[in-house]
C-alpha cells in the first residue's frame, strides 16, 4: 500500500467529498477514485458508502482512517530524521539524483543527447525518467516535489491555472511553429505555407506518442471529415508512410532539428497554435546542485538549437 493512498483517504474523510479532496490534493477525481478503490481491494473491505453525490466512511473505514493518520505522523517523523542525517549513503545518492517527468516527445528528441552530454561531465549522476502526459506531469510533481517536469504541448492547451493551483511554476524555454510533412512529389511541396482548410482532403499519418498529433488533427475537423490513414508510435513507419506519399504528417521546427529528413518537405501551417516546450517545478522545494546544473545546461543546449533552427 502506498503512503500517498493513506493521505488520500484521510483527506476524503476530512472533506466528505471526492471532488473537494481531489482539488486539495491536486489530482484528478478519477485518479483519486481509482486510488481509493485500489485500497479497498488490497484491504478487502469497503471504506466508503456512496449515495448519489454524497459519501461517508463505513465503520471499518473510520477505524482505518484513524490508523492512517497515526501512520502519516510516523512517516513524517521518519522523513524528518532522514533529512537531518547528512552523512549517510542514501543522502549522498539522492543529492546526485535527477528525477525527470517528461512528455514522450521530449524523451525522444531532447533528452538522449542532453543526458549523454551531462553524464560525461557528471558520471555519478543518477537519472530517473518517467514518460507522462502533461496533466500527469502536474499530478506527479505534486506527489514528488523534488521532481522536474519537462513539458511540451500546444499553446492553446496550456492552462497556467493548472500550475498556479498546484503551487508549481512553468517556465517556457522554446516556442516554435507547427509544420506539415509531405513527400517531395506532393502538390503542396513547393508552398511556403498552407492553411488548415487545405489539409482536410489529405490522408493523415499521426505519430501517436502523446496528445499533440491528435490535437492537431482536431484543427482540421471544421473543414471536413479527417481521414486518419495511420496512427503509430513507430517513428520509422511514420516517416516511411509520409515519404511514400501515402499520407501527410505533422511536425514542428524543434523536432526537425533532430530529424534529418531527405525524402520529405516541411511547410508551416498558418493560424495554428504554437508548440511550447518548458520545465515545471515546485515553487517551495529548493533544487539540489545537480538539478540546478542540469537545468542550466538544458537551457543552454536549447538556446543552441534555437540559433540553428
Automatic annotation (TrEMBL):
Keywords: DNA-binding, Transcription, Transcription regulation. Transmembrane segments: none annotated. InterPro entries: LysR_HTH_N, LysR_subst-bd, WH-like_DNA-bd_sf, WH_DNA-bd_sf. The keyword Transcription regulation applies. Pfam families: HTH_1 (PF00126), LysR_substrate (PF03466). GO terms for molecular function: DNA-binding transcription factor activity; transcription cis-regulatory region binding. Residues 1-58 form the HTH lysR-type domain. PROSITE patterns: HTH_LYSR (PS50931). Belongs to the LysR transcriptional regulatory family. PANTHER family: HTH-TYPE TRANSCRIPTIONAL REGULATOR, HTH-TYPE TRANSCRIPTIONAL REGULATOR CYSL. This is HTH lysR-type domain-containing protein. It comes from Desulfitobacterium hafniense (strain Y51).
